[in-house]
Structures are given as C-alpha cells and as structure tokens.
Amino acid sequence: MSKFIDRVVLHVRAGKGGHGCASVHREKFKPLGGPDGGNGGNGGDVILEVDANVHTLLDFHFHPHAKAGNGKPGEGGNRDGKQGADLVLKVPDGTVVLDDDGKVLVDLVGSGNRFIVARGGRGGLGNAALASKARKAPGFALLGEDGEELDLVLELKSVADVGLVGFPSAGKSSLVSVLSAAKPKIADYPFTTLVPNLGVVASGDTTFTVADVPGLIPGASEGRGLGLDFLRHLERCAVLAHVVDCATLEPGRDPVSDVDALEAELAAYKPALSADAELGDLAGRPRVVILNKIDVPDAAELAEMVTAEFTERGWPVFEISAVSRAGLRPLTFALADLVRRYREEHPQAAPKRPVIRPIAVDDTGFSVLADPEEPGGFIVRGTRPERWVRQTQFDNDEAVGYLADRLARLGVEDELVRLGAEPGAPVTIGDVTFEWEPQISAGIDMVPTGRGTDIRLEQTDRVSAAERKHASRVRRGLVREDEE
C-alpha cells in the first residue's frame, strides 16, 4: 500500500565546476606552440519540476539527498570539459519550497512549472582563454567553483476548490465517495482518514475538485491531533464546507458548537501562504454548512432546528445524507456555482515574463568594510571578487598575480587606499585572508618571468614574518645573525 507523505526535508547539492587546464601545445619542430588548455565544464543544477503524475513526496522521504552531476575538467588541445548533468526532481502540483529558516522560496503550482533550487558551480577557464598580449602563455588556469548546497523543506498543499472540514467521523470521506469517483477508506471509528483525499466533481459545465481533510479537533491550530499536519491542505481552497454530524451521541456536542469550535481553529491558524492566489486567511473564505446523516430521524429533526441559526450568519445550509444520497444534487450545484463565481473573480494569472535589470552605472560590484574582528583589517564583499578568489590557485604565483590584477582593475586597490589601509593590513575576501601589498604594481601588464611565477610577488621591502621571528631570536641571543 502506498504511503502518503506531504512534508519532507531535502538535502540538495549542485554539481561542481570542472577545473581549467594549463597546457602548452607541443608538436615536433614547433616549440612554443602556445597555450591550448581547455575550459572546465559547468556543474549541473538541481531543478524541481511539477509533474501531474506525481501525487506525494514519498520518493524524497526515502531518498532525502539529491546531487547533480559535476563538470569535467578541461584538457589540452583546446578540449573543454563536459557539462555536469542537471538533476530534475519531479514534485506534485502544489508543492511549496522553504529554506531551513522557514522562508518560502517558491510555490510550485501548475504542471511543468520549474524552479532551480541549487545552481551548479562555474567551470574554470583554461590558460588558452586567459592568454593576452602581455601574458601569451599563462602557466595557470582557473579552478572550478563548488555548486550550491542547502537544506530545503518541501510541503505539499493540496490544490482543491472545495475543502471539507469537520470533526472525526462527520462523514467527509463518505461525502467525497458519493460526489466523485474517489474511494477513500471509510469506517465507523474516529480518524479513519489519515491522509487528504481528492475527488473530482462534475456539475453541468463546471468541474471542480473536493478535498477531504482529516478530522479536526479543538486545539488543532496548536498541534493537537492531526491539525497542523493537515490544516495546510485547506490553504488553497476557495470554498470551505463544514460537514456536521447531526447524529452524534457524544455529550456536549451539537451542530452549532461543532461549527463554532472549528471556526475558532480556522481563525487561529496562520497560513504560510496567506497571500496565495489572493485568497487571504482561512477565516475570510466563503462558507457552506452541510448537515449530514439526516437519514437518522433524530438527526433530521436536529438539522431542521439549527438551520435558521446558520442561515442568519449568511451561510448556505444543505441537509444531506451521504448514505441515502438525499440532498446531494442541490449541494453539488451550489458548490459548482461558488467555484465558478470564484474563478470569474480570480482569473488565472498570466505567466511571468523574465525581467532584465541592467547594472547601474555607479555600481562598482563590490564593497569594502572595516573588519570588526581584526583591527586595521578590511573585508571585501561582492559576487565577482569572491568568485575570483575561489577560482585562484594560491600555490601558483602567476595565478595570484593575475588575481591581484583583476582586483586592481575592479577598483579594490584604490578603495583600500581611500579607506586608509596600511601595508600588511589583513584583507579578507570570501574565505581567504591575505596581507595587502600596495607596491606590487597590480593592474599593470607585466611580462612574466616564467610559467607559474610573478616577479612582483618577490619584490617587497616589507619584513616578512619569518624575518621578524629570526630577528627576535637574534636579540634574545638564541641564535647568531648569520644562522637560519
């Protein structure tokens, strides 16, 4: 028997980008053939797509980890690495995606709707793409970026036009079974229904869906019973129908008190999608009262007594019997009319067009802030400088010099000077902290002295940490000045 799962935690990881290749073309009688290192392939994305044939989040319950394909590294001979394969995850219609802080990222409604939840890392450029007039044969390549990795919460909120609300054993499942072709489990004990049941109802030219929500009890909005697990399935319903058991033998219960208790729970529940389809809170949805089980004589008399009180509230009242099917025809027509009226007032929104926002002329693409934890230090933030740092091989001097040139051309060097940065000041970009050297002529094209080297990194008058440590040992008489 299949299991219904409507809330899961999903761990997704996009693919890593492949590293660029640092290669020089070699051929007999053709020395110095030039750089021919290819670019690394981009990592694959993790994509959620609505599929009409998927009705539960069961697959993610048993397989909570999802990983897209990694990009392949570039190769010599100008061969680019293969792109990582995207991972497309099929989800049911009505799936809401939240981050680990509970913020709604996207509401996936409509078959075929897609959303990229984790983007793959960029592939690094090979040395063929990094060649320039001054750097004709780069001895380095850029590293590939890691893909995005995050934890998501997927919640399934049933997409139904009419939601049936009521106490346990009120006859909601029986009503769905006679209104539609759905065959939910029906028994004579409370909480028979443990999962929402959807049924499709045709009335004249109108076809609508009905959701049978598991029984609610007082305190459901605070988590009692199955309340919080299934109240969310009412969030998208345009019409709420109270199904009242007029034949209950429980002491202290009657149709009016049952409806008032459920109304209090609906008013107390705060939907996460309060702005979904402009429906508003549950307390403001149109109501219908269905007095069930009138095939029982005492229930029929009770239904007749309370009808006037519900009518005074402006709610349509219908006396029915799901067993004998009495009163179902006018109920079906009334529900179809309410749904049709709602659809006329809320036409389906047109698909959103992509919006292209040009970069402002005064946008530098980065910001430099004082480091609150390091006196005299600075933190550089921005998409480009942080990406450049992640793609740099710090064991290759030429790659570090290339990074310094890029940062200088972006304006980071000038901004540090303007803010009063001193030589040797710790500057943090992303996860890397380095000592700022303003005298290495960053941003000026330099002729490389050799592959993988940069003469500017060797030309500094500032005393290194190793030299300061050695001088301290000499002053304390631990070693002679000529000793290492």
Automatic annotation (TrEMBL):
InterPro entries: G_OBG, GTP-bd, GTP-bd_Obg/CgtA, GTP-bd_prot_GTP1/OBG_C_sf, GTP1-OBG_CS, GTP1_OBG_dom, GTP1_OBG_dom_sf, OBG_GTPase. GTP binds at residues 166-173, 191-195, 212-215, 292-295, 321-323. The lineage of its organism: Bacteria, Bacillati, Actinomycetota, Actinomycetes, Mycobacteriales. Mg(2+) binds at S173, T193. Monomer. One of its GO terms (biological process) is ribosome biogenesis. NCBIfam families: Obg_CgtA, Obg_CgtA_exten, PRK12296.1, PRK12297.1, PRK12299.1. SUPFAM superfamilies: Obg GTP-binding protein C-terminal domain, Obg GTP-binding protein N-terminal domain, P-loop containing nucleoside triphosphate hydrolases. Its EC number is 3.6.5.-. Residues 358-438 form the OCT domain. Residues 64-85, 458-484 are annotated as: Disordered. Keywords: Cytoplasm, GTP-binding, Hydrolase, Magnesium, Metal-binding, Nucleotide-binding. GO terms for molecular function: GTP binding; GTPase activity; magnesium ion binding. Residues 2-159 form the Obg domain. This is GTPase Obg. Its main location: cytoplasm. Residues 458-469 have a biased composition (Basic and acidic residues). PANTHER family: DEVELOPMENTALLY REGULATED GTP-BINDING PROTEIN-RELATED, MITOCHONDRIAL RIBOSOME-ASSOCIATED GTPASE 2. Transmembrane segments: none annotated. It is an enzyme of class 3 (hydrolase). An essential GTPase which binds GTP, GDP and possibly (p)ppGpp with moderate affinity, with high nucleotide exchange rates and a fairly low GTP hydrolysis rate. Plays a role in control of the cell cycle, stress response, ribosome biogenesis and in those bacteria that undergo differentiation, in morphogenesis control. Belongs to the TRAFAC class OBG-HflX-like GTPase superfamily. OBG GTPase family. One of its GO terms (cellular component) is cytoplasm. It is found in: Cytoplasm.
